[in-house]
Specification:
Blueprint: H1 4-29, H2 33-43, H3 47-68, E1 83-84, H4 86-102, H5 107-115, H6 119-137, H7 141-148, E2 153-154, H8 161-169, H9 173-193, H10 196-200, H11 202-225, E3 227-228, E4 238-239, H12 254-264, H13 275-294, H14 305-324, H15 331-338, H16 342-369
Antiparallel strand pairs: 1-2, 3-4
Length: 370
């Protein structure tokens, strides 16, 4: 058994390595949920959407395979609890979708753009991180805790689809997990691979597969490698190296906030580099290396005061919305959905709706002004 001290090094280090690979490929292929939705809404182009859907499919299949093998208990994650906060998922998700459109991308995309020299992304990330922390523990927390979160359903045993079907049918939960994960994953893969042009795009195929595997590997690192059945200090079960004290995979709202906190309070010995902080640094580093390697790095600033305003507002909406919805396009759209949690599907749908609606509004405004 690894010691707690060793795990505090191993878990973040593995998170960094996974995020580095993610960053390289995401920069090469412009992997971006906002961009994928915008391509579909504005141009009818499904190429990047298929890449993202392939990542979701692989993440679902991979995460549930390691759960079936007994390596990780997805039921202990933040997403699969008994409390289904529908209003928080819908409102938070929609606001996040609006915000990421105004800010030219979600938190992960802005980290990638910053690595390539986009200074607009630095402003977005600062406002995202500060607002996220305010929503978790600061001025905006009462709004979330007292107004949105209390409107919830309580689903005994958990809100993931295998558990819900198990309680309704009595069928063995392992069988149901295999069927549900297999059916959703296979359906997504079939849809993605129907397109001949997408099948011929090796970079998009590789990115979709690798990103999905990275999400599944994140669960393995935090839920298996970092798991202690009995912490020698507390004599309780522990998941070492995570911000949530639970098994977790990739997400980029809370981790950006915690990264800013660590930078501001570096000498505070109670703070450590966690898995979440490590994947922020890893994603940025991978994108930076690829940008420098390919010569794609260049400085970029705001075109106008209106551009600055939109990006600041986008960062604020993403910070509040991402915390309220318990995740972003990566946190809920990949990691959460991979657990088959009902709330994650609701949050993901709300994010896409917010992004699509904002794209339509901005496109119509552009036509009027043009």
């Amino acid at each position: 058994m690894q010691s707690t001290a060793n795990l505090w090094l191993i878990v973040p280090a593995l998170g960094f390595a996974l995020a580095f690979a993610f960053g390289v490929l995401a920069h090469r292929t412009a992997f971006c949920t906002m961009g994928a939705v915008s391509d579909v809404v504005n141009m009818g182009d499904w190429s990047r959407m298929r890449m993202w859907l392939l990542a979701i499919a692989v993440a679902i299949l991979g995460a549930n395979l390691i759960a079936l093998l007994g390596w990780v208990e997805l039921g202990k994650s933040l997403y699969t609890g008994e409390r289904l906060s529908l209003v928080s998922h819908i409102v938070g998700g929609f606001l996040f979708g609006v915000g990421m459109t105004l800010a030219s991308g979600c938190g992960s995309r802005n980290l990638i753009r910053l690595a390539a020299g986009n200074l607009k992304s630095l402003v977005v990330l600062l406002f995202l991180g500060i607002t996220a922390f305010m929503t978790m523990k600061g001025l905006l927390a009462p709004l979330r805790v007292h107004l949105l979160d209390p409107i919830a359903l309580y689903l005994t045993g958990g809100q993931d689809l295998p558990n819900l079907l198990h309680r309704a049918s009595g069928v063995d939960i392992r069988v149901l997990r295999s069927i549900v994960a297999g059916a959703i994953g296979a359906a997504l893969v079939a849809f993605v691979l129907r397109d001949r042009a997408f099948r011929a795009n090796r970079e998009y195929l590789l990115c979709g597969i690798v990103v999905g595997l990275v999400i599944a590997a994140g669960w393995y690192v935090t839920g298996h490698i970092g798991h202690l059945a009995e912490d020698p200090e507390t004599l309780e079960e522990a998941f070492v190296g995570t911000d949530t004290k639970r098994p977790e995979s990739f997400s980029y709202v809370g981790p950006v906030a915690y990264s800013l906190q660590l930078l501001l309070l570096w000498t505070d010995k109670s703070l450590r580099v966690t898995f979440g902080v490590a994947i922020v640094v890893g994603l940025f580093s991978g994108a930076l290396v690829n940008a420098l390697w390919t010569g794609a790095s260049r400085w970029e600033g705001f075109a106008s005061a209106a551009d600055l305003r939109n990006h600041i507002l986008g960062g604020i909406l993403m910070g509040f919305g991402g915390v309220t919805a318990l995740g972003c396009t990566i946190g809920q759209g990949l990691s959460g959905v991979s657990t088959l949690a009902l709330g994650s599907f609701v949050a993901l749908g709300s994010i896409i709706a917010g992004c699509a609606a904002t794209n339509v509004v901005l496109y119509k405004r552009m036509l009027r002004e043009g």
